[in-house]
Specification:
145 residues; mainly alpha; 4 helices
Length: 145
Amino acid sequence: MPHSDQTSNSNWTILFICWLIAVISALGSLFFSEIMKFAPCVLCWYQRICLFPLALILTVGLFPFDKSVVKFALPLAIAGWFIALYHNLLYTGIIPESIQPCSQGVSCTEDYIKLFGIFTIPMLALMSFSTIAALLFLLKRRLSK
């Protein structure tokens, strides 16, 4: 297999992993709200605004592989990462409750689940956006060579 074929295959694989994480996260978000009946807070909705289009954009970039997908997907992943980081800081009490955006409706610090005793919904979102953003940065760097 020529070197360029191996490189393009590994680039496609990186994008596929990003897509897989985005789709699993979106389906998980829908599962929590529609099946488990956990009402999403304001920050959860903002994260969904970043996540759901990300799953669609990455799908379009996979078939056929389109390297320009990175310039559309990376800003959404970064925006979602900042919102998820803020949500985690709020959830853990590092940011005081007085500056919460969730003054009405569902609280942003509502404790719905703790998978394995540590993974909360805001933490899962932060992990997803972190992984997607890191992989997209890696892909951007590989494509710029």
